[in-house]
UniProtKB/TrEMBL annotation:
It holds the Pfam family Zn_Ribbon_YjdM. This is Alkylphosphonate utilization protein. SUPFAM superfamilies: Prokaryotic SH3-related domain, Zinc beta-ribbon. Residues 3-32 form the Protein YjdM N-terminal domain. Coiled coil: none annotated. Residues 46-113 form the Protein YjdM C-terminal domain. It comes from the Bacteria. Belongs to the YjdM family. It comes from Paenibacillus tritici.
Length: 113
């Protein structure tokens, strides 16, 4: 038999599955098992090329010339990017760069300024 977690609201052991939700019959609390897994993933730490932890609003510097997809221009080494926003995915930095506009970058190609 599958072991389901206790209710996070009242700690009841009588939880059951209802589709993609878990339900507690004692307090009627409903929650998603995926949401519990998501909480541990939300704490994912994004680091730059030197191992420094990045946060929203940081300023970073590009450490390598990067080709801009869909354009013939290149993002030059040493370009400062202000006020970054961390997002999930392969390209984990969302930002606006003067002269280029909105762009997504990989954290492995930047260092914290």
């Amino acid at each position: 038999m599958n072991e389901l977690p206790n209710c996070p609201q009242c700690s009841s052991v009588y939880t059951y599955e209802d589709g993609s939700l878990l339900v507690c019959p004692e307090c009627a609390h409903e929650w998603s098992l995926d949401a519990d897994k998501g909480n541990s993933e939300e704490q994912k730490v994004i680091k730059d090329s030197n191992g420094n932890v990045l946060a929203d609003g940081d300023t970073v510097t590009v450490i390598k010339d990067l080709k801009v997809k869909g354009s013939s221009s290149v993002l030059k080494i040493g370009t400062k990017v202000k006020n970054i926003r961390l997002v999930e995915g392969d390209h984990d930095i969302d930002c606006k760069i003067d002269g280029f506009g909105a762009m997504k970058l990989k954290s492995e190609f930047v260092r914290k300024a």
